[in-house]
Design a protein that fits this description.
38% of the residues lie in helices and 14% in strands. By secondary structure, the protein is α/β, with parallel strands linked by helices.
């Protein structure tokens, strides 16, 4: 399982950030954690505090760092931009690209595609978010989802396609209770649909190599149910990852 905790902008003090990081680090170094990779996507200033400078010890190998976005800037006269080279030199290994909140600010499929290619060029693993805003009776949302995936995978090499991490985040399911969010049955259907799309780009069993995450009202009470038998490879929790006890409980539920 791959668990990516997206802190978004909820964590606004260094004390809060340090407590969260310390609790996850303790859990990751314990023998209780089996076959689970944790990635923390924190605001850029914290990457400078917790960054390893590109050196990852065995103790930290299960707690990797992700940027919440990736600038297309390559440096120079670009005030306010955080470049991929800078991130990589801090020890950042992943970047969330195309999150629904960035798309709501005007990020297009083309921009997402360019950022994914830029991430690979700078040896940063892209975590690409896709998902519909709402579900319609005519299932047009499936075409939207396909268009988002096509935009990312079309220009990539076969090797890059197999390395993309896809995060399915139905926007309508975010911020709801577990009972009102996506059911395990619906998640299973969506995983099959996404794998079918990926089969167009990765023949044979290649589509199974792409890690597929789910995000949308994931809690300690439903994470195990969503993980078992749905074909999902991990999760992308948001607000829940900023509460120390909740996030640790979610990870433990998967053990």
């Amino acid at each position: 399982m791959l668990i990516v905790g997206n802190w978004k902008a909820y964590v606004q003090t260094t004390d809060h950030a340090k407590k969260l990081y310390a609790s996850v680090k303790r859990l990751a170094s314990s023998t209780a954690l089996r076959d689970t990779q944790i990635v923390l996507a924190m605001p850029a200033p914290y990457l400078g505090i917790f960054g390893t400078g590109g050196k990852t010890s065995a103790a930290l190998s299960r707690v990797l760092l992700a940027a919440q976005d990736l600038s297309l800037s390559t440096g120079g006269a670009a005030t306010g931009e955080v470049t991929a080279v800078l991130l990589r030199n801090l020890g950042v290994t992943h970047a969330i690209i195309g999150h629904s909140e960035r798309r709501a600010m005007g990020e297009t499929d083309q921009m997402v595609s360019e950022k994914v290619s830029h991430a690979f060029a700078n040896k940063i693993m892209p975590i690409v978010c896709v998902g519909e805003r709402e579900r319609d009776p005519d299932a047009k949302y499936l075409k939207l989802l396909r268009a988002q995936i096509d935009a990312v995978f079309s220009p990539l090499s076969q090797k890059e396609r197999a390395q993309v991490i896809l995060a399915y985040e139905p926007i309508w399911a975010i911020g709801k209770t577990a009972a009102d969010a996506l059911s395990p049955e619906d998640l299973t259907e969506m995983v099959l649909y996404i794998r079918k799309i990926l089969g167009s780009y990765l023949p044979g069993r290649g589509a199974q190599k792409v890690k597929l995450l789910y995000g949308g009202s994931v809690e300690p009470g439903n994470i195990r149910t969503l993980a078992e038998g749905t074909g999902i490879d991990g999760f992308l929790p948001g607000h829940a990852s900023t509460d120390e006890k909740t996030f640790v409980s979610m990870i433990k539920e998967l053990q």
